[in-house]
Known about the structure:
Blueprint: H1 6-20, H2 25-41, H3 43-59, H4 64-70, H5 76-87, E1 96-101, E2 107-114, E3 117-122, H6 126-138, E4 142-146, H7 152-168, E5 176-178, H8 185-191, E6 199-203, H9 206-215, E7 228-232, H10 238-250, E8 259-265, H11 266-281, E9 286-289, H12 291-294, E10 303-305, E11 319-325, H13 328-338, E12 343-347, H14 351-360, E13 365-368, E14 387-389, E15 397-399, E16 405-412
Parallel strand pairs: 3-4, 3-6, 4-5, 7-8, 7-12, 8-11, 9-10, 9-11, 12-13
Antiparallel strand pairs: 1-2, 2-16, 14-15
Helix pairs in contact: 2-5, 2-7, 3-7, 5-6, 6-7, 10-11
Amino acid sequence: MMTLDMQALGRRAKAAAIELRQVTTAAKNQALLTIADVLEQRRDEILAANAADIEDGRRNGMSEALLDRLNLQKRLDGVIADVRSVVNLPDPVGIEFEQKTLPNGLEVRKRRVPIGVLGVIYESRPNVTVDVVSLALKTSNAVILRGGSETLRSNGVLVDAIQAALQMVDLPADSVQLIGDSDRRYVTELLRLGDYVDMIIPRGGQSLHQLCREQSTIPVITGGIGICHLYVDETADLEAAVNIVHNAKVQRPSVCNALDTLLVQDRVAATLIPRVVERLALDGVSFRVDEQAASFVDGEWPIQLAGEGDWDTEWLSLILGIRVVPDLTSAIEHIQQHSTAHSDGIITQDAASMERFLNEVDSAAVYINASTRFTDGGQLGLGAEIAVSTQKLHARGPMGLEELTTYKWIIVGNGHIRE
């Protein structure tokens, strides 16, 4: 395979980003509609490439969780619909805010502008390719994509279709570029394209995020790794608690906002834990539990004592940790020690406990009496998301269109000079 010239790729992306700054919202929306149409027209080609990726993944021993993320066979219609839905979202680029006139007469305001060039590194999910492109184009950002080796065929066909659609509407095809080589050295080279790339967004496991933090000369948005908790206290509606826990674990276990650890106050443990185990086991869930939790469960159920590291594991599968704690203080201490600051919640009817949990649990999304599965841009009213950030600058939680912009200061004078 020909060696990639990453500097040239970066230069092309930068040039495309400059051109995109001049594109109207109407033109961007037309580009998105054209992309959706071309993806539909090339459906058979896309699904055939995806099927080949899935076959290779299964042959190479890929886990069911990763195979689920890789699979486009039943999701392509939804992916295309999501592109069209982005058309209906408001374009944040050009919006002006915090307008004021200073005592000296200077008019000051801020205007939202594109970040520029995004470098997105991700694993397993070819739907991310289309999601990222849609949001990047809507916000006038160019994007360099580096998917995993397991999705090379799927991503290659998707990006080829997207570039063809961009050419149809006279937008630069280099607005979207794919690193179509699985050699990991290109990841490192991307992380050092600081002259051309303005932000890196990794979407993958802990090792990928650590690599980006350590190697990048470009600002990195970290997140998407979710060791998520729910704490149930003695005042909780236990029937609602069982339903919330079931949804948080079972509705889609392979994603970052799925529940990993259930913490139960000891006063309700004997009642709640058997109900949770019985309900979730029917859907194939197995359990890693502490000794006290195990004492409340009949041995016929799929439980085993939690081992070293289990409380620090993002399961991404039908496994749930259960631990009994004496009080809210212990629950918060456990979360502070083991959470990845993604999504954590409390199930309670006590207002003081709610407020204390909100104040002391410093996660990107904190829940009261609800499933953690709502940490999602679409679910939280953003329309779509490019990632979930667990850091504090510049974005936190689900990142939608506004989080793909920055702003510039606009200062308007009338011959003003500083004394």
